[in-house]
Each structure stands twice: as structure tokens, then as C-alpha cells.
Design goal:
The chain is mainly alpha-helical. Helices cover 76% and strands 0% of the residues. The protein has 4 helices and no strands. The longest helix has 30 residues. It starts with a helix and ends with a helix.
């Protein structure tokens, strides 16, 4: 793999992560209302695996605490 290909792959992965984080934030806002800046930061620092787990868990959660997001 060339350096250019590696950089493109990294960019695509970063874009997917940012997109999933933004999607989770929108879903959280729809369900629980506006979240604090700390919650936004926590989600943006999370791994894509964690974001996907929170997104699925959101379906049955009643609070951010149930998700482990504060």
C-alpha cells in the first residue's frame, strides 16, 4: 500500500467515525434533549466500536446514565 493509499484510508476511517459520532449525538438529542458539551466531547473521543454500542443501547435506555454517558 502506498503512502497516498494509507492516507486516504485513514481519512475515510476518520470520516466514518465523525459521521457515526454526529449520528449518535442527533439521536441522543431527539430522545433526551440537548446534551452538555462534556457529553459531546465524550462521544467525539470514543472509538467507533463504543459509539456503535451506545447507538444500539440507546434503543432501550431511559437515561444517559444507563448508557454510561454523562
Amino acid at each position: 500500500m502506498t503512502t497516498a493509499e494509507m492516507l486516504r484510508a485513514e481519512g475515510r476511517a476518520e470520516g466514518r467515525l465523525e459521521g457515526e459520532a454526529a449520528g449518535l449525538i442527533r439521536l441522543l438529542q431527539a430522545k433526551f434533549g440537548d446534551a452538555s458539551a462534556a457529553v459531546h466531547d465524550m462521544i467525539r473521543r470514543a472509538s467507533i466500536v463504543q459509539i456503535r454500542e451506545w447507538t444500539v443501547a440507546l434503543l432501550s435506555a431511559n437515561t444517559l446514565d444507563e448508557l454510561g454517558i454523562r
